[in-house]
Structures are given as structure tokens and as C-alpha cells.
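Per reviewer request, we include the raw input and output of the structure prediction for the construct analysed in the revised manuscript.
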Amino acid sequence: MTTTKKPRRKTESVQPGLPWHDLPGAMQLILNADFLAKEFRRTAREKLADENVNDRRASIISFLSQVGPQSINDLADKLEQHKAAISSILIRMDSDGLIEFTPNKEDKRSKNAGLTAKGRLLAAPIHAKLKGIRLKALKGLTKQEIDTTNAVLLKMIANLDQIRED
């Protein structure tokens, strides 16, 4: 049985019938950034399927392998996910033997989630695959182009943070 991959969206349009060139520059930038993030997650899901790990589990494994055990609240904040979603994922990861809960020494009401040996074994292939995706996504870009794009996106993020504070 052969499986067919879902065709990638053409970069000529963000929405059906709406060509990129008809959009104002600022709107193109925002839609391109959103499209890039979605495509990165989709590509990561496809490439991580061999590890039997979805993109959310991969981000938790990757993060915990770098910083060590974290409380559910800290994980939700740092991964910018809802606490309930992180908690649900962690419970499934615990039952799959990828993480374990330990008492939180700083807050007796909560527990820390840390990787088990099985979870740590997955960290290296996950890091390698995600790094490969990032490198291929940046292929052909100069350091200056990357730095400029990053600076623009960081300014936009700061502007959005300011709007929320106002």
C-alpha cells in the first residue's frame, strides 16, 4: 500500500484566489512569517514520524534535554503552550516512559517533569532532525539576510508585546 503525501501549498497564494503580490508589504510579511512557522511544524512532524514522536512531544523532549526537569507551569510558559495542553501531553509521555515526575523542591504543590533514559535516547535524533530542517530552511541565505530578518521579526514581536501592555 502506498501513501501519498499531502501536496505543499503553493507559495503564490496564502488564501485561495489571493496572490501574494496583491497584498500590502506589511501583510505579506506577517502572512509569510505565519506560513513559515506552519511549514516548519509540518515538516518537523513529517521528519519526526520515524521517531514516533509528534512535534509537541519533540519540543518538550528537546527542551527538557537542554535545561533539565521543569514544572508544568514553567514548561507551559517557556514553550508558550496552555498548561492544560502541556499537562495532557506530559501524562501521555509519562505512561509511554519518556518522562517521569519528581517532587518540586521549590513548590511542594507541583511536580517537575524530567526525561527518563528512554526520553533522553530520543533527544539526539530529534535534535539532529530539527537542526537539519533549520539548516535546509536557511540554505542560500547570507548571515546578513538572516540577521536582518531576525531583527525585523523581533521588532514586530516587541511591538505586539507593547500593544498587549497598552
